[in-house]
Amino acid sequence: xxxxxxxxxxxxxxxxxxxxxxxxxxxxxxxxxxxxxxxxxxxxxxxxxxxxxxxxxxxxxxxxxxxxxxxxxxxxxxxxxxxxxxxxxxxxxxxxxxxxxxxxxxxxxxxxxxxxxxxxxxxxxxxxxxxxxxxxxxxxxxxxxxxxxxxxxxxxxxxxxxxxxxxxxxxxxxxxxxxxxxxxxxxxxxxxxxxxxxxxxxxxxxxxxxxxxxxxxxxxxxxxxxxxxxxxxxxxxxxxxxxxxxxxxxxxxxxxxxxxxxxxxxxxxxxxxxxxxxxxxxxxxxxxxxxxxxxxxxxxxxxxxxxxxxxxxxxxxxxxxxxxxxxxxxxxxxxxxxxxxxxxxxxxxxxxxxxxxxxxxxxxxxxxxxxxxxxxxxxxxxxxxxxxxxxxxxxxxxxxxxxxxxxxxxxxxxxxxxxxxxxxxxxxxxx
Length: 431
Prior knowledge:
Elements: H1 2-18, E1 30-41, E2 48-62, E3 65-74, E4 82-93, E5 100-114, E6 128-141, E7 146-156, E8 165-176, H2 320-327, E9 333-334, H3 344-359, E10 365-369, H4 377-397, E11 405-409, H5 419-422, E12 424-429
Parallel strand pairs: 10-11
Antiparallel strand pairs: 1-2, 1-8, 2-3, 3-4, 4-5, 5-6, 6-7, 7-8, 9-12, 10-12
């Protein structure tokens, strides 16, 4: 009997290895069954018997299906003293969950009806018949590893010297082995990533980029990175992952989305046309110019090319003192008849005018000469021009630029109330 059992186990192993059934798949545990079998031969004269062992080894494939092999040994109490079977089977679980699992099975194999005479081999050809079988069974769960088993099958062996058989098996089933769907050496029960080949040190998960962070915890599984960056790279070392860094190759700040701001003007260097000089965002990071240097920026300066004052929009301040001087009726220089001589009071007015022109350096002045109606008109025109030129010369002598002074002569065309008042020089604002 021991020799028969050893041979049966060897046959099981050969069947599984030759058909590739040892490959493990997800949630498909191995199951080994052992127990006793009761066999009844179709011909009543052949009798029945009870024997051991009844062995089976199956592998769950999925979808309720399992595949495997079974072996049984018995002694029939009449004509056939020795009875052996070995089959390949396919089993289908009608339900897959619960404490009671009914199933159907079918198979094909060999049945031996021995006559007690020793012949070579366990299944000699003259005493063995090819056999088809079909049946039903039930597994009753005892715990996570063990189940009680009961099955019945009808075996059809119609060759010469054989007979159909009805076989019942009762025994125990032991479940063992964990699935390894991805074949990475980590059982599915322990594999956090059961469908992807991985590494044991990462509980079965892969580390595609080799950065020591498993893909299931790596925000950038195909780019080597650091744990601080959740597996993502930080090429410039600024603490901002490359994927979130607008300037991944230049260290910057989070405020600038990872870009540097060399001049600290809140405009990133990549957008700053003046990266080394603090400027304004509205001017592309450059400072606003002040062409005339009057402290009023060109963008706000109504007179960007002429120095002025902020109160006047960047333009020169109105020369109010000069305007008042010109408007004052006493701001006139009077002359004697046919004279161009400037007296003391006239010189004082010239000095006052010089001070005002110094204060309003961007203002020009017009000197207008007049004459009384004494003499001819042409003479009086020339005299009025000479009087204006005389005052201009005095201003130039005091340092006023000639380009700022214009002279005009009106002769006797604009007389005053009397002849003395008509011999005069007046001032007006130039252009």
